[in-house]
Amino acid sequence: MKKPAPDAPAAFEAGGADRPKLFDAEAVSEEMRIFWKSGDGDNFMMQGDDLRWARWTKDSTVDAMRALPGRMIAIKARENEMLSEAKQVLLHVRKTRALEEVIPSLPGYKSGIHLLDSGERVLVKNAPKLVEPVAGEWPNMRQVIEGRLDRRPSGGIDQTPYFHSWCKVAAEAIRGGQPGHWRAGHAMILTGPRGCGKNRLQEQIITPLLGGYGRFADPAKFLFEADEFNGDVFSAEHLMLSEIPSPSQRTVDRTSLAEKIKQVVANPAQRMRLMRTEPCSVSPFWRLTISVNDDPDKLRSLPVITADFGDKVLVFHCASAPLPVIGDNTIENQREFRAVMEKELPCYLHWLLNEWVIPEELKTYGDGSNATRFGFREYHAPCIKDELFDDTPAAQLMSLIDSATFKRGGSFPSDDEEGGSVAEGKLWDMVGDKATGAKLWHGKAETLQMLLTGEGGYFCNIATMAKKLFQHNKCSSLLGRLYADEHFRDIRLSKGDCREWKGWLIGPPTV
């Protein structure tokens, strides 16, 4: 309708009206953020104004459509329509916005719709609550960290650079990465006396730094049991084990634990199996920490620090030191301690991201090779590493070698003035280096095993113990583990390969 003049009546002008607009069900479903979980009947998932996801019935979803400002979405079909506009929206959602699963949370994933590695489209309801960095001081948190990890006052090593570097790499990774492209990080093992406060590092610093207070998962079943359903560990970024359950000191169990830890650290994709769902592949952001008392019986449950495992783990030895604020361990003081830690955490994070620089000496190994796969090189507290090694089959082999005495005349170089042979000697007395006079046994692993078990033509005083050791361990494998240890490599033990066979050179204990 148009007026030919301001004071004239309006008249109809053919062809001047806009064409009727087709109803866009896709635009409405996108605007309302509606999705449908496959198999969930007449219920839908919708994001509210508070950005939280909730399950809505069909009728409630239609009411929400009708409440859209500036819209008049029809609930009845008009002329020449098979479905009402509301039903068109719901049908479009079922056909194109279906979800295989609704998951409360996934480590590192933001709230919203995600396509998993295995192709499933899922809704993740809750995201990690990342702390915002704020410039400021953090004296109490510094006291907590340094009191446990700086061992210089007792003649030890300052372990805090490794801890700060670990936290920095983790904080940068979760903020700058995305599923499938997270930067991996070492597992962390915290050892120390009972009640020294090692759990405070896990609970009051690491957990809130990675995903928010309370956002941690107990990985005990995942690490120690063949549990088909593992949804627990896919609920949080921090896998926190406060104590090893039902500790086993069997080598096979310690090796199995090492393999599980390596899986958490080094594998970007993980198999997830929730209740009443098919397994699928996801890429979680995980950091694993384990705290254990430094009692020898407890430590023997930890994996042995081998070459293929050691580079994936930090092992700290914590000291007992006073905690700030706590005083007497009352509920009020505990609450005050947490409040202080919460207040200082943003300042610590700001310091990590903007001021702390990983020392250059932590980025390379002693031979100059690169050590930045996880941001910096591994660290193993010497006292704990020695304790873990002393109870291993490899350590038992070296102890047997040092204790072994062999008897049979005419086979040992003599130390007497006349140069005659003697009837009894140690392993390195058998061959020796005729050119230099050095005492150094040279032979194959199989030959060494035969000598120690008394089957190589000599009587050996530790033959019975050696036979027990070799029942479940190959001599060549144990020598390889000894050679991988810097305390023995090229000091007590070195490669002695010949053109015809692969061998070893073994010398006496160093003074």
Q: What is the top-level CATH class of the largest domain?
A: Alpha Beta
Query: Mind telling me the C-alpha Rg?
Result: 34 Å
- Under CATH, the topology of the largest domain is which? Rossmann fold
Helix count equals: 16
Tell me the number of strands: 21
Terminal-residue CA separation: 109 Å
Shape: elongated
Low-confidence runs: none
Main β sheet profile: 6 strands, parallel
Proportion of helical residues = 25-40%
Average pLDDT: 88
Short description:
The protein has 511 residues and is of the alpha/beta class. The chain has 16 helices and 21 strands. The chain has helices spanning 25-32, 58-66, 85-96, 139-149, 160-176, 198-210, 220-224, 251-266, 296-299, 307-310, 331-354, 382-390, 393-403, 445-452, 463-471, 475-484; strands at 34-37, 43-47, 53-57, 98-99, 101-105, 112-115, 121-126, 187-192, 216-217, 238-241, 270-272, 280-282, 287-293, 313-317, 379-380, 406-412, 422-425, 441-443, 459-460, 493-495, 504-506.
Q: How does this model look, in words?
A:
With 511 residues, the protein is of the alpha/beta class. The protein has three domains: 25-99, no CATH class; 139-389, Rossmann fold; 392-506, no CATH class. Helices cover 33% and strands 17% of the residues. The protein has helices spanning 25-32, 58-66, 85-96, 139-149, 160-176, 198-210, 220-224, 251-266, 296-299, 307-310, 331-354, 382-390, 393-403, 445-452, 463-471, 475-484, and strands at 34-37, 43-47, 53-57, 98-99, 101-105, 112-115, 121-126, 187-192, 216-217, 238-241, 270-272, 280-282, 287-293, 313-317, 379-380, 406-412, 422-425, 441-443, 459-460, 493-495, 504-506. The strands form six sheets. A six-stranded parallel β-sheet has the order 9-10-13-8-14-15. The protein has a four-stranded mixed β-sheet with strand order 3-2-1-4. A three-stranded mixed β-sheet has the order 5-7-6, with no helix packed on it. Strand 1 (34-37) and strand 2 form a beta hairpin. The protein is elongated, with a radius of gyration of 34 Å. The N and C termini lie far apart (109 Å).
